Structure formats: structure tokens, C-alpha cells
Amino acid sequence: MERGQTVAVVGESGSGKSTLARVITGLLPPRSGEILFLTELLPPALAQRSKQQLRKVQMIYQLPDVALNPRQSVRDVIGRPLSFYLGLRGKERERRIIELLEQIELSEHYIDRLPDELSGGEKQRICIARALAAEPELIICDEVTSALDTIVAKAILDLLQRLQQELRLTYLFISHNLDTVASIADQVVVLYAGRVAEKGSKSAVFQPPFHPYTRLLLSSVPEMRQGWLEETLSTREAKAGIAREVKITERGCPFAERCPVAIPDICENNRPPLQTQASGHVLACQHTPEILLK
Ligand code: SF4
């Protein structure tokens, strides 16, 4: 990931998006591999990470209702990381809470409110302020707009983009919604069954040659509506008569059972080679980009 950029991770349920986020934040240990953050390796488990390592990677969740304790006021929610990570107390802490409220475009009058007294969009703003309070370098946004209506979701995306520019934040943006991804991402990673099917700049991933799975994702007009992806896939699968669930497999290409251009005997038995093009665009497929283009 490049500093100050947004990498979007896209794929349907079961593709491994949230698992990836949990591994990066230390909530799950990686089965293999390492997490390199700036120049240091992050210990796999949360408990082994230093306070500074924890501070630098923050997360914003899909459901602000669940992410906020109903008995904690805005002051408590935003104030806690200020005390824990930065040791702020008293007036200094209060001043910083108000500053953070301004950054998320809420007035200081919100400081004593409880989550029940906030709208869905305001709650998500408070979750953003809580993440910012730690002064992170990377924020993982896990489906942060999928529980919000279209207009509120757009306002949250605009806010995240403004904050990114002002604070040079890096986002790992997990989303089902290709419209959201198209509006916010610099780089896109398409995951399928825990493996990278395709990755590259937004313009490279969203124009031919497509990976066969990306092509399937893009085959519907994206809408800012939760569940459209699953609905599209279920319709197409029903037509094509192919298996619905994402199967995790060690052997071959995990997409082979559903792939309309699978090569018999080759795709189900051999891992697809990673084909890197000059632009840095990577496709994991047995077909060459020239063939996929056709
Ligand atoms: S490797 Fe084979 S099954 Fe997998 S996407 Fe490419 S053509 Fe389809």
C-alpha cells in the first residue's frame, strides 16, 4: 500500500476480506506470511503488539450501533483513545475532542450525547473521530457505508476523502459495492476464496482485460444497495447452474467450478500463474491477458 492512498478489497461473502482485516489488526493470527508495516514486521497477535503499533492501525466497522457502547457519551468514546494512546487528560483532552468533532463536521454540542441521540450517519462520524483520535497511519474501513442510506453514505465517503487529503491517511477499504470502490479507490484487490484474483490500479482493474471473476462482478450495473452483489451472482449462477458457495481449495484455481472460461483438467488442478503486466496490473489466471481481452 502506498501512503496516502486507498486500497479497496472487493469480493463476495466468504472471499476473505474481513479475515484479511482481522489478520492485519492482530485479531486473527496469519496462517502463513508476515505483515510488514512501514519498515517493521507486526507481531501476529494483538497482545504482542506495542501501544505504538496498535495506535498506528485503526479500524472503522460496518455497524456503528454495534461499535459504540450505548452507555458511553461522545466524550467517553473519543476521549478514551486520547488518554490511552496519547496520555491526554483534562482540558487538553477536552480541547482535542472538540477539535476532532470539528474535523468530522459535528459541533461541540455533541460532546455529551449518547449513541441513542445520534443518527446513523452521526454515529459513523463518531466512529471515524474515535479512529482519528489515535492519530493512525492506516485505517481499515470494513463496509463502513453499507448500513447507511445512499445520501448519508455519500457524505461519509466525501468526509473520508477529505480527511485522507488533510491528514495523509492510508485506507484499506473493504467493500461489496463496486460503485463505492470506483469512487474511493486508488488501487483495487479482487479477492476470491482467500486468494488474489486480480489487483492493480483502479483504472487497470476496471477495464479489459478482466479476470473472469472480476468480469462476473462487473456484469451488473453497480448500485448503492446492500446485497446487490449476492443477488446478481445468485441470478447468474441459477442461469448457469453452477455452485453458489465460495469453496476454499488448496489445489487449482478456486474459481474453476464457476468460471465460464475454465480450461478442463488444467484449471482445477493447477494454481493459476500470477501474470504481472508492465503497469503493475496482476492477473491470476491460466489464460494470458491477450486471450482474456478476447
Ligand atoms: S485460472 Fe482457469 S478457472 Fe481460474 S479464472 Fe482463469 S480460466 Fe477461470
Structure keywords:
alpha/beta, 39% helix, 10 strands, binds iron/sulfur cluster, elongated, Rossmann fold, two-stranded antiparallel ribbon, 2 domains, 8-stranded mixed beta sheet, 294 residues
Structural account:
With about 290 residues, the chain is of the alpha/beta class. The protein folds into two domains: about 5-185, P-loop containing nucleotide triphosphate hydrolases (Rossmann fold); about 195-294, no CATH class. The protein contains twelve helices and ten strands. The strands form two sheets. Strands 4-5-6-1-7-8-10-9 form an eight-stranded mixed β-sheet, with helices on both faces. Strands 2-3 form a two-stranded antiparallel sheet. A hairpin with a 5-residue loop joins strand 9 (about 275) and strand 10. Helix 4 runs parallel beside helix 6 and helix 6 runs parallel beside helix 7. The longest helix has 18 residues, at about 150-165. It is elongated, with a radius of gyration of 21 Å. Mean pLDDT is about 90; it is low at about 220-225 and about 235-245. Bound molecules: iron/sulfur cluster (SF4). Iron/sulfur cluster binds next to loops.
